[in-house]
Amino acid sequence: MPTPDSSVDRVEPEDAGGGARVGRRVVLSMLGLGVVGTLFGAGVQSGLARGLAAAEGRASHGLAGLIPGSDRFRIYTVTGGFPEVSDEDYRLSVTGMVRHPLTLTLEELRALPPTSLTHTFQCVTGWQVPDVHWRGVRLGDLLDLAEPTSGATALHFTSYDGLYTESLTLEQARTRDILVAYDMLGAPVTREHGGPVRLYVAPMYGYKSAKWLKGIQVVDRVEPGFWEQNGYPVNAWIGSTSGLGGIL
Ligand SMILES: Nc1nc2c(c(=O)[nH]1)N[C@H]1C(S)=C(S)[C@@H](COP(=O)(O)O)O[C@H]1N2
Ligand SMILES: [Mo]
To answer: Which of 1, 13, 70, 149 has the highest CB neighbour number within 10 Å of its CB?
Structure first.
């Protein structure tokens, strides 16, 4: 069972056990298993979780491959490549249900009040990297600038890879330990790790931390992200009962 790191505030699961399991059919077909069993038996759920972990591993074996980094991160990409976005060309947009849509350059992001944190990076498949230092702008601070309008309840994140997406509720997004990160391990986020800018959602499994962050759309309902459409729980709190970490 992974233990949440004590260096950041604990955030209790809001809807433990309620993680949506959409796209199970898709995952099962990816795994060549067909649609069998029931979603609700614990045994089946464990089997499904293991299968999903295998699917994530398989996704990392694209052209770019699974590259065990020297810092013990595994470098993931679902497209088989790493988008190349120069510091000069980088833009982050915050759009949708906001009073003030934003388009920020890297320079503008770096000029905003920074937040740093150190936390264990934890992939749902079981690997983790302790004491990773991050620096960036709190997602909550960006939202304060953009001012979501009434009726907004969720965020939809897109990536410069054109495929990866993620989601958070607006309430989750306002917790302290979520960064739009431009530094990692004391240096600019590398291209492999999702630079120049990636999301880092400290209290949740790694799949929430979208790399090559392109856009944040403020919306009125949670749209499950890439892995969530393939069966991962939308609720990704580390150690929550609906996470997969406890059985891997
Ligand atoms: N764009 C994009 N973001 C992504 C992924 C991905 O494949 N593509 N993988 C996710 C998963 S499952 C994990 S564990 C982390 C891994 O981060 P790393 O590749 O920097 O180690 O990135 C997350 N963000
Ligand atoms: Mo992951």
So the answer is: 13
